[in-house]
Amino acid sequence: MPRGELTVVTNKQLEMIDLTDHLQQVVSSIDDGILHVYNPHTTAGLIINEGADPDVQHDILGALGRIIPGNYPYRHSEGNSPAHLMTAVTGSSVTVFIFRGRLRLGAWQRIFFCEFDGPRSRHIWWKTIVG
Amino acid sequence: MPRGELTVVTNKQLEMIDLTDHLQQVVSSIDDGILHVYNPHTTAGLIINEGADPDVQHDILGALGRIIPGNYPYRHSEGNSPAHLMTAVTGSSVTVFIFRGRLRLGAWQRIFFCEFDGPRSRHIWWKTIVG
Amino acid sequence: MPRGELTVVTNKQLEMIDLTDHLQQVVSSIDDGILHVYNPHTTAGLIINEGADPDVQHDILGALGRIIPGNYPYRHSEGNSPAHLMTAVTGSSVTVFIFRGRLRLGAWQRIFFCEFDGPRSRHIWWKTIVG
Q: Cβ contact (<8 Å) for B125 and A131?
């Protein structure tokens, strides 16, 4: 199966980075298929959501910081348990269909890498199933 | 790969609509395989959960409205940021196994389209991998 | 497609059980492929997260119990609506790549079955796509 990885360098503690253009390139020769994108980190995630208005990214990250308690009596000594929780609720992979060399995304959808404990250098893995 | 789409017309701001019967039909001739269902919207989602008691749907939608803050200082001018958050935490696709023409769901599981910013006319895409 | 199931016996109301060793065994003869793991229950889930420090599991389960309201005016008469919510936000399946007979997990990642309404006897289904 065609596969690959990409490196994502993040600059903030919480950050969404649009991977769509890169992932579009890796499927450009596939007529019919499926793209799976996998996040190998336990304090980062992948989210498909609106890319047109950057305020949506601000709102997603900010509200996640409200939803996940910052002061639960956490035990994990690294102090980044809220980031582990953000990973747990957003998930470790996304699946997107491919048709005629294009990712089949909705009109407003973009694929984002989500940094929850940055800044760091991160990796994302992808694999395609060709129909 | 076999693929298709269906239209879902929603009637409320928050609503769960059972897609299982329709999706069962599209896999009825597949002996062994996988169904991927994809939601192309950024203010809607897909959830697999209990279908027997409609109160579960009431509780899921109601509690999501408590979990996602309604009054975070959101910036997105369309005013539907909580819906974008609900999409982020529930995810954009579901994967179900197929065996002998049947979706392999648990005893109480049904596949729901989740409207988080309705009423609207929505679309869902599906694709099957035949084993 | 190669497929199978495993039984998980849980001992607590909230519990994370590491399935990685078992799932590693089922992919050991696959050179290139994808593993899908499916949870057929509506009050349990699957999470990929850190396995090195058990405190992370404690923190994930404990914080989920804070995130999901315990006293929302729930209607579902079985009284386990918070467990249905935990399932809705963590999701019903995980996808992991396989390469040279190994699950391609990140350095700290493990695959966990998450009991949200135990103790019970549970089942997990898996299926592999061989490349």
A: no
Min CA distance, B47 vs chain C (Å)?
A: 6
**Cross-chain residue pair B93–A91, CB shorter than 8 Å:** no
What is the C-alpha separation between C43 and A127, in angstroms, rounded? Answer: 30
Chain C closest CA to A12's CA: distance in Å? Answer: 21
Residue B125: predicted pLDDT: 98
Contact between A97 and B3 using a beta-carbon 8 Å cutoff: yes
Q: Provide mean pLDDT across the span B74-96.
A: 96
pLDDT in tens, chain C (131 residues): 999 999 999 999 999 999 999 999 999 999 999 999 999 999 999 999 999 999 999 999 999 999 999 989 999 999 999 999 999 999 999 999 999 999 999 999 999 999 999 999 999 999 999 98
Contact at CB, A87 and C49, closer than 8 angstroms: yes
In our burial notation (b when 16+ CB lie closer than 10 A, e otherwise), range A23-45 reads: bbebbeebeebbbbbbbbbbbbb
Cβ neighbour number for residue B110 with a 10 Å cutoff: 22
A-B contacts (CB, under 8 Å): 95
- Spatial CA neighbour of C118 closest among C32, C24, C50, C17: C17
Which of C20, C27, C48, C111 to mutate against chain A (most A CBs within 10 Å)? C48
- The model carries a pTM of 0.98
Q: How many helices and strands (H and E) does chain C possess?
A: 3, 8
Q: Where do runs of H (alpha helix) occur along C13-80?
A: 20-26, 54-67
Q: CA of C7 to nearest chain A CA: how many angstroms apart?
A: 23
